[in-house]
Specification:
With 309 residues, this protein is α/β, with parallel strands linked by helices. It contains 11 helices and 14 strands. The protein folds into 2 domains: 221 residues, Rossmann fold; 68 residues, Alpha-Beta Plaits (2-Layer Sandwich).
Amino acid sequence: MIIETINLTKRYGELVALNNLHLSIEEGECFGYIGPNGAGKTTTIKILATLLQPTWGEARICGHVVGYQSRRIRPLIGYVPDFFGAYSDMVVQEYLDFFASAYGITGQQRRRIVNDILDLTDLAYKREALVDSLSRGMKQRLSIARVLLHDPKVLLLDEPASGLDPRARIEIRELLKELHRMGKTIVISSHILHELAELCSTVGIIERGELLFHGSVREATRRAQMGTRVQVGVASHSDTAIKVLQRLEAVKSVQVSNGKLSVELAGEVHDFSFLARALIDNRLAITELKEEEVNLETAFLRLTKGIVQ
């Protein structure tokens, strides 16, 4: 287990930011950390980054205990906060040279590593640009470039896509996919849930400092699935189709959603072929018939609202 927390708790007076958090992340995983603002995501990441001490409980990275063996942990991690520090008088290459020297990388090795990282993050053409002149998306890529200089095993990313335009988000996502393919263990918090579903192998859902779910995206959506719901499209006469479907014993409800009919089936009914037969028998042309899938965003809303236990 490359990351593990046991009864991890953080209090600020009466405020409980984390409450007995049990989390385990395997080496090579890309773990998505999901929760509303103030849920405890940033607190968790800062503890793992050795920037905060827990009130009690324990966090381990590569077997080393945060707070007791932090000097051993720091060379193993790369932490990217959700904001960029002020380095307005440096150009990109100077910025990376400075941090490489802080990691004790010198001479030809430093020049080679900086050049390789610039190529990996697609910033080579900006090596002479002032850091302050970069767009927010490029600054986020530069932040990731900085933490890759010492080749860490674990990347801790706190809202790396926050405030980025769609193109910049895609570029960050593709970079993280490449880092995952390279074997990095990645912990990433984000509010952009559809991108986490595409990027992450496992997710954790946290609310008010308590972990509500930890597992695969598929398991999260399965947990949030509430019966069978079928999306039905008809060529015309949708009012007639609604009446036909509402008369069926196994149909619990019919609603109109985005021009399609959303049919909720009662009980444990999973075979919905009878819907097609009923519509065809009433001379209604079917354009679409498929089971609606719960996505990560819906799963998050249902799990955090306590609909699913």
